[in-house]
TrEMBL record:
<dbReference type="InterPro" id="IPR013221">
    <property type="entry name" value="Mur_ligase_cen"/>
</dbReference>
<dbReference type="Pfam" id="PF01225">
    <property type="entry name" value="Mur_ligase"/>
</dbReference>
<feature type="domain" description="Mur ligase C-terminal">
    <location>
        <begin position="339"/>
        <end position="468"/>
    </location>
</feature>
<keyword id="KW-0133">Cell shape</keyword>
<comment type="pathway">
    <text>Cell wall biogenesis; peptidoglycan biosynthesis.</text>
</comment>
<dbReference type="GO" id="GO:0005524">
    <property type="term" value="F:ATP binding"/>
</dbReference>
<dbReference type="GO" id="GO:0005737">
    <property type="term" value="C:cytoplasm"/>
</dbReference>
<dbReference type="InterPro" id="IPR004101">
    <property type="entry name" value="Mur_ligase_C"/>
</dbReference>
<dbReference type="GO" id="GO:0008360">
    <property type="term" value="P:regulation of cell shape"/>
</dbReference>
<keyword id="KW-0131">Cell cycle</keyword>
<feature type="binding site">
    <location>
        <position position="470"/>
    </location>
    <ligand>
        <name>meso-2,6-diaminopimelate</name>
    </ligand>
</feature>
<dbReference type="Pfam" id="PF02875">
    <property type="entry name" value="Mur_ligase_C"/>
</dbReference>
<feature type="binding site">
    <location>
        <position position="192"/>
    </location>
    <ligand>
        <name>UDP-N-acetyl-alpha-D-muramoyl-L-alanyl-D-glutamate</name>
    </ligand>
</feature>
<keyword id="KW-0573">Peptidoglycan synthesis</keyword>
<feature type="binding site">
    <location>
        <begin position="414"/>
        <end position="417"/>
    </location>
    <ligand>
        <name>meso-2,6-diaminopimelate</name>
    </ligand>
</feature>
<keyword id="KW-0067">ATP-binding</keyword>
<dbReference type="Pfam" id="PF08245">
    <property type="entry name" value="Mur_ligase_M"/>
</dbReference>
Length: 496
């Protein structure tokens, strides 16, 4: 494909001739091959423009840069280079990738989920409903990527446009007609999803997270709201919005102004509601009441938050033309979502649940559920830690949330990343101490799991929170294999 064809539709500020042959699109110089178009972008950690030379050494067939200085320098060094200047690198990356891959985003009906918590779970539910209606789909999110059934690892919740469009291309080739994906606030803010036409957009909720990146809740909300305006694409046709959430009300008005058909859901408010809710570990049922009629839903997902996720997914699937019967069948067929209230079998009569709760709201909901399941006679033991190089202000709040409903807190490390684990623990401990709940501090996560399990008696619930499906622990100098469910299973076996 010619450079001029790959950059068609990009509003370049400057451009040279376009007759170079392009064989691929890359935003990371390390992935450049002979003939690749290298999109050099400034970032928060480094600057892709520093790697133009490396890309050229690897045989780049063309360059797009977001820096005028790099544009001028590159041309003086390589006068015959096909190069364009575009201030917004990610927009250029998205359009160039879409051109290169032949616009797979136009061949899939896209359902996109945003919100602080519940995105991954909701995408799994929508996918299950689509499957029950015999529709092939692509799923993209935190845990993994599904390409019409094939499972791949996921490097990011929402990949860069180039990688997303490559996945869409494979999905279309595998016969997919739909895509279901999470749109993280980072991705919306950075416009990783520029030009992707969303058919159905879902908002789950907004509570504190990622203030290290967004700065304020208002800016965090503004990032989420962008999904409902369309990011370089028309606004979504349908907006599915949580009516129980205070930000949901604002979004509802916003989406209506943008011309969307709005479907609301909630435990207490909304058009899609749940009645006769029965909550057990590994089994939830409720009567779905909706403008489309009512039906009994049974799921092996646990807890009230998953009733909400199921309502959101049902409203979205229905607006994709899936019947209530197919919705019920899909929900019934989803066995579990990895690391979301995933129980670890044992013969001690203890409910051990691995859960990805890594915000104060998720912890509050999780512990409230555990409290209900444990009853008056049994204890709730909550193990948690806070991630390093992430929102520091959520740490005492998570501590408070963990202390509030638990009988015992085991405070440990999550992914410390480049931070001192002891300091992270200190910050969270302040919150736990305010609640007066007993707290064991043990920075080594495996030892902490051991201690939490050792104190549990028949009927107790042990919550291993924060890392969910994750298979590694990110430390300052290395990343080690670590899987809460696997560690817990091993420790329980040793104790048997
Ligand atoms: C804060 C954030 O979103 N960071 C992401 C962002 O980084 P950035 O824009 O600052 O870029 P940078 O690392 O400074 O690099 C600048 C440019 O140089 C390029 N480069 C870099 C090195 C090199 O040798 N050659 C080269 O060309 C990079 O590819 C990039 O294009 O773009 C990079 C390239 O895609 C990502 O690797 C990086 O993810 C970092 C590792 C990260 O931790 N991201 C997290 C916070 C994230 O995005 N999370 C959300 C989910 C959150 C949730 O669900 O709760 C997600 O969507 O995954
Ligand atoms: N609807 C919900 N409301 C509040 N908390 C929820 C909801 N759904 C799930 N949770 C909690 O949040 C955790 C993460 O859920 P999930 O992975 O589905 O969310 P996510 O939005 O994809 O998270 P991330 O942004 O980290 O990818 C769960 O383990 C659970 O504790
Ligand atoms: N997607 C979230 C996940 C956090 C999970 C937790 N284990 C942590 O490392 O803080 C993030 O990157 O902030
Ligand atoms: Mg997710």
């Amino acid at each position: 494909m010619l450079f001029s064809e790959v950059v068609a539709g990009i509003e370049l500020d400057e451009q040279t001739h376009g007759s170079c042959e392009i064989t691929g699109v890359e935003y990371d110089s390390r992935r450049v091959r002979e003939g690749s178009l290298f999109v050099a972008m400034r970032g928060g950690t480094t600057d892709g423009n520093k790697f133009i030379r490396q890309a050229m050494d690897k045989g780049a067939g063309g360059v797009i840069t977001d820096s005028r200085e790099s544009f001028t320098n590159a041309l003086s060094r390589w006068p015959h280079l096909c190069i364009g200047l575009m201030e917004h690198g990610r927009r250029a990356l998205a359009t160039a990738s879409a051109n290169f891959f032949g616009h797979p985003e136009q061949k899939l009906k896209l359902t996109a989920v945003t919100g602080t918590n519940g995105k991954t779970t909701t995408t799994f539910l929508v996918e299950a409903m689509l499957q029950a209606a015999a529709r092939k789909s692509v799923l993209v999110g935190t845990i993994e990527v599904h390409l019409a059934g094939e499972v791949r690892e996921s490097p990011h919740t929402t990949p860069e446009a180039r990688d997303l469009l490559a996945l869409f291309t494979e999905g279309v080739q595998a016969g997919a007609s739909e895509a279901v994906m999470e749109m993280s606030s980072h991705a919306l803010d950075q416009e990783r999803v520029w030009g992707m036409p969303v058919d159905v957009a879902i908002f789950t909720n907004l509570t504190q997270d990622h203030l290290d990146y967004h700065g304020t809740m208002e800016k965090y909300f503004a990032a989420k709201q962008r999904l409902f305006a369309g990011v370089g694409a028309p606004p979504p046709r349908v907006a599915v919005i949580n009516a129980d959430d205070e930000y949901g009300h604002r979004l509802e008005k916003f989406a209506l102004r943008e011309g969307a058909v709005v479907a609301t859901y909630g435990m207490t408010k909304g058009e899609w509601r749940a009645e006769e809710v029965v909550l057990r570990a590994g089994e939830t049922s409720f009567l779905l009441k909706s403008p489309a009629g009512e039906i009994l839903l049974r799921t092996s997902l646990t807890g009230r938050v998953n009733v909400l996720n199921t309502l959101a997914a049902s409203a979205a699937a229905y607006s994709r033309g899936i019947s209530l019967e197919q919705i019920a069948a899909g929900v019934a067929e989803l066995p579990f979502v990895p690391g979301r209230f995933q129980t670890v079998p044992n013969d001690r009569g203890v409910t051990v649940a691995v859960d990805y709760a890594h915000t104060d709201d998720a912890l509050l909901n999780l512990i409230r559920l555990a409290r209900e399941l444990a009853g008056k006679d049994h204890r709730v033991i909550t193990l948690f830690g806070c991630g390093g190089d992430r929102d520091r202000t959520k740490r005492p709040k998570m501590g408070r949330a963990a202390g509030r409903g638990s009988d015992l807190v085991v405070l440990t490390s999550d992914n410390p990343r480049t931070e001192d684990p002891g300091i992270i623990i200190e910050q969270a401990l302040r919150g736990v101490e305010e609640t007066g709940t007993d707290c064991i501090v043990e920075a080594d996560r495996e030892q902490a799991i051991r201690r939490a399990l050792a104190t549990a008696k028949t009927g107790d619930i042990v919550l291993l929170a924060g890392k969910g499906h994750e298979k590694t622990q990110v430390l300052a100098d290395r990343t080690i294999p670590f899987d809460d469910a696997e560690v817990a299973a091993r420790v329980l076996k040793e104790m048997a």
